[in-house]
Specification:
Elements (H helix, E strand, L loop, with lengths): L2 H10 E2 L4 E4 L3 E4 L2 H8 L14 H10 L10 H9 L7 H16 L12 H4 L2 H5 L3 H14 L11 H10 L19 H11 E3 L2 E2 L20 H11 L7 H5 L3
Antiparallel strand pairs: 1-2, 2-3, 4-5
Helix pairs in contact: 1-9, 2-8, 4-5
Length: 249
């Protein structure tokens, strides 16, 4: 995931309204529909049960060769999946889904798989009837609301990155495939990021697609992010961006 773009997009995210507010460009809804559109995940059905269930944990661990109630190491779990040699059965899907929740949909800083994912992943048919898209949105909002003075969040930031890129109007040959994430490989991301860069670490040069445009964001600068973008756009290209931070007040 492109670090500079992800950090910038995080600054654009409004956790109250759950949208990306792009200075002088518009607003992009960050909702369950966007998750379903980008990643092809279910957007209806039961609420994800994200909780610790000791009996389920013990059963799943035993099923996959990790007896006890402790969460297995992620590396060992992934090796176990690799040893299945891509077996197309419910056991494989469950083990893979647990990794998807642990590393992507609801990531943590732990090096172990998340036992909270066991219940929702244990029944493949139930998994397909669960509103995973809304779960991802809830996780993003909760993580940003609890951000405080921290510089990082544990949630699916990658969704914000791909959603932003897919909402930009750009003169590149981009597939109209679904889910939309399939259109965005690392090469295309780099091309669009280059065209969208205002200055190092500051993006938003390109226009958004018509349905997201809205410049009625209020105020002279519309917040700190807009001020940062304004300054970056009006400094000479040779200007040292560290000067402002080092200048005494």
């Amino acid at each position: 995931m492109p670090v500079d773009l992800s950090q910038w997009v995080m600054k654009c995210y409004d956790s109250v309204k759950s949208e990306l507010v792009i200075p002088d460009r518009g607003r992009i809804p960050v909702d369950a529909e966007s998750v379903s559109r980008i990643w092809g995940l279910p957007n209806s059905g039961l609420k994800v049960c994200w909780a610790m269930h000791p009996d389920v944990i013990k059963t799943i661990n035993a099923e996959y060769g990790f007896p006890g109630n402790n969460a297995p190491d992620l590396t060992k779990w992934c090796k176990m999946i690799k040893d299945m040699i891509g077996a197309a059965d419910a056991r494989f899907v469950t083990s893979w889904a647990i990794v998807a929740f642990t590393c992507f949909l609801a990531p943590t800083t732990s090096l172990k798989v998340s036992p909270r994912s066991y219940l929702v992943c244990s029944d493949v048919d139930l998994l397909n009837r669960t509103n995973i898209s809304q779960f991802v949105i809830d996780q993003i909002r909760q993580a940003f609301m609890a951000l405080g003075n921290k510089k990082s969040v544990c949630c699916c930031v990658y969704h914000l990155v791909v959603l932003y890129l897919d909402s930009v109007k750009v003169d590149e040959m981009i597939s109209d495939c679904t889910p939309r994430a399939n259109a965005w490989d690392s090469s295309l991301m780099r091309k669009v990021m280059k065209k969208d860069t205002i200055s190092p670490g500051v993006f938003g040069k390109l226009q958004l697609k018509e349905k997201y445009r809205d410049t009625s964001q209020g105020g002279l600068f519309g917040g700190l992010l807009k001020a940062e973008q304004f300054v970056a756009a009006n400094l000479p290209s040779t200007y040292d961006h560290c000067v402002i931070a080092c200048t005494p007040h």
